[in-house]
From TrEMBL:
Entries under PROSITE patterns matching the protein: KAIC
Tree of life domain: Archaea
Protein name per its UniProtKB record: ATPase, RecA superfamily
Keyword Thylakoid recorded: no
Species assigned in the record: Acidilobus saccharovorans (strain DSM 16705 / JCM 18335 / VKM B-2471 / 345-15)
InterPro entries assigned to the protein according to its UniProt record, in alphabetical order: KaiC-like_dom, KaiC_dom, P-loop_NTPase
Residue ranges of domain KaiC in the record: 1-244
Entry keyword set: ATP-binding, Nucleotide-binding
Single GO MF descriptor: ATP binding
Amino acid sequence: MSHLATSTSDEITIPLNAWYKVAGSIRRGSIILVAGYPGAGKTTLASQFAYQGASSGEPSLYVSFVEPREDFMANALQFNMDFRPLEGRGLFRYYEALSVSDPEALGDVVEDVLSQVDSMNAKRVVIDSVTAVEQLARDPPRAREIMHSALYLGLKRRGATALLISELPVGQEASGLGPEEFIVDGIIVLRYRVVKGKLERYAEVRKMRGTNIKRSEFPIAITPRGVEIVVPPDISSMPSGVKPRRSFSLLGLRIPEGANILVAVDPSVDPLKITTLLLASSAISAGLKVVVKSFIHGPSTIRDQVSECVGEDLQGKLLVPTYEPSSMSGGELLANLFRLVEDFKPDVVIDEGNNVLLDLLDRDDYTKVIYGCLPYLATNNVVTFHIYLWPSERVFEIPLAKFYDFVISVRPVGDLLEVRLLKTWGEVLPGGSTYLKASDFTSCDFIKSNGLRPIS
């Protein structure tokens, strides 16, 4: 669990990576409603909120009407959040309210919760869930009285920043709390939809008082770090292609740092040696760190082929992630990429067989993945190659093909491979063709001299 944002005396952050990109900070003392489908990540998000607060010295109280303490603790541990040491230091308290069964007892519990806030001087409070409070109150007017007079105003007067969790039936838009949705300072809605057998998760910021909502809806993923936001960086942070810090050469083509290249390889050609030798092996030989993600070749095949020209010791030079894309949503794929770049800090990322990924995802979701991927990698000064098995005459049918800095086609012409530039960054005309022989891929000297390498 990483603590991803700092807080000031007047502001606090939702503990999600890149939250500031979509809604900035929120004011201390705000009451935020988190509504969502079952399994959408509400409790995980609320746990992150409490854990980040307690870990930074802000006493946090978690009130649950739905989950026993031991279950909560065990589930939090799955995301590397161990509340027990914080509990021992008086920075966290779990208030279990499972035994409440009637409206009178509910009123007593709410009063006791506010007393707990006072006794530990809680700065952050989670109520899980207000849906349970509403059901226990039985009478809608009584539920609103408890929600507004006791919880909302009670927490407001104490200056606590609170997350109120609300259950949202699948397909329903509103939380069902009625006027309370207008009273709270912010509303976050967590939802998902099933696409090709996978849950595509996303969050929506309905309102957030005192902040500038830059993006109202964005993909999320639930990873070992908890709930993660996966949005691309602001395009203003992308590096200059006119005056790059360094450039690279590939078959005589100058490529600026942070560029993204689409390579359409004719389906009759196996791109393995293009991926591993012309790109990865050459780059590693020149001292660059390379990531290869292949959707058509196994990790051992990639490593063995790369080692032909650079030797067996690839530790710290080559990373070949192993995961099953058919079981991952677009948000999870992006979250994995962001974490990989953050941890490994590559110079080059090569995705081989992206056409397979396109088949596994909904086309709109795939387009969002690519749009999230390319600016992020460019901002981190990573040269990116996306290799598709795709006919060259239809290359611009690939999602966001016109968004790439370079577009290259590879196709057999007799006994040769034609490598043709269809789009060249910064040039009015696309460029010409280079022809490769099969023997070129057996010469490590040719690979190191003509493959991907830095030139400045």
